[in-house]
TrEMBL record:
<feature type="binding site">
    <location>
        <begin position="85"/>
        <end position="86"/>
    </location>
    <ligand>
        <name>NAD(+)</name>
    </ligand>
</feature>
<feature type="binding site">
    <location>
        <position position="116"/>
    </location>
    <ligand>
        <name>NAD(+)</name>
    </ligand>
</feature>
<feature type="binding site">
    <location>
        <begin position="36"/>
        <end position="40"/>
    </location>
    <ligand>
        <name>NAD(+)</name>
    </ligand>
</feature>
<feature type="active site" description="N6-AMP-lysine intermediate">
    <location>
        <position position="118"/>
    </location>
</feature>
<feature type="binding site">
    <location>
        <position position="290"/>
    </location>
    <ligand>
        <name>NAD(+)</name>
    </ligand>
</feature>
<feature type="binding site">
    <location>
        <position position="139"/>
    </location>
    <ligand>
        <name>NAD(+)</name>
    </ligand>
</feature>
<comment type="function">
    <text>DNA ligase that catalyzes the formation of phosphodiester linkages between 5'-phosphoryl and 3'-hydroxyl groups in double-stranded DNA using NAD as a coenzyme and as the energy source for the reaction. It is essential for DNA replication and repair of damaged DNA.</text>
</comment>
<comment type="similarity">
    <text>Belongs to the NAD-dependent DNA ligase family. LigA subfamily.</text>
</comment>
<feature type="binding site">
    <location>
        <position position="174"/>
    </location>
    <ligand>
        <name>NAD(+)</name>
    </ligand>
</feature>
<feature type="binding site">
    <location>
        <position position="314"/>
    </location>
    <ligand>
        <name>NAD(+)</name>
    </ligand>
</feature>
<protein>
    <recommendedName>
        <fullName>DNA ligase</fullName>
    </recommendedName>
</protein>
Amino acid sequence: MSAVTPEIKARVEELRREINYHNHQYYVLDNPTITDGQYDQLVQELLRLENAYPELVTPDSPTQRVGGEIQKGFTAVQHRVPMLSLSNAFSENDLREFDRRVRSNLPGEEVEYVLELKIDGLAISLWYEQGVFVRGATRGDGELGEDITANLRTIKAIPLRIKESIPFLEVRGEAYMPKESFVRLNEAREEAGEPLFANPRNAAAGSLRQLDPRVTASRNLSVFMYAIGHLEGANPGTHARLLGWLKDLGFRVNQHYKLCKDIEEVIRQIDKWQEQRFELPYAIDGLVIKVNSLDQQQRLGATLKSPRWAIAYKFPAEQAVSTIKDIIIRV
Ligand code: NAD
């Protein structure tokens, strides 16, 4: 391996500075100044350099931590289990590489995957005690989130009481703004001379992280739930059964998930969603692929930033093009 030169070290530091700046714009101010594709390219370049020169990896590098922060004015809440990000795949080969890594960690075992839509919103965590909604939070930096309980209570798709009084359930999912609401909100903001939101994800994040819940209530947000953070008193066994169970409890679960017997079946779905996503009433920026067995998920575990049992496949258009015109034109 070649030695680290001052130029390489300087480039790594410059990339970190730039990525941290864009993280702040995106996660704290809800106001990105570059497209997600441009951002992803910066991260990929940093990852390539860190892989080639591991001595340059530092614990505070943006590749090693979840991107968010706690905004002033919100109470911080500690997640019982960290809320992580997802590693990214940009090609079919990246998905096959992911599958190889998964199977090499589970020698001789069959591995099934669940394919889900990657909803372009922000991750939320909901706590239920004895079946009653008691607290809701953003992902924040993964360890600490923002308490947004009052705002989440205004979202009609979130049940205030679920159908079973399970002692404790933490359910996770995505809060999002439907495309139509996003376009209408931006039109109203334009008329009022206010700055526009860059995409539905930033609009949803800006609408949820409001100190006045009446503002959130006026923004027509919705949710899809797709994971468990912590559960006492039940074990659905597989991710596909978990989704069905969440639905039976009264949660809104996205209907377009698919159980696939191997990675090739996952890959065969990509073209279909690349086209069909424009017909959906909400924005998606890719697909999420998850190992189906919850036991295998647990054995695969996670790095500090992302689980080893899941990956996000990003659509090529999202990698290169700003989404706002795309969304407005195609609504
Ligand atoms: P991510 O968006 O790539 O993936 C993780 C997130 O996916 C989860 O936290 C969850 O909120 C979401 N998700 C949606 N549907 C899901 C499903 N079905 N199952 C599980 N999770 C699902 O990771 P991230 O850390 O939240 O954000 C990084 C991405 O944000 C970047 O790749 C980039 O696209 C964007 N970003 C852009 C800028 C910018 O300046 N444009 C800055 C920072 C981040």
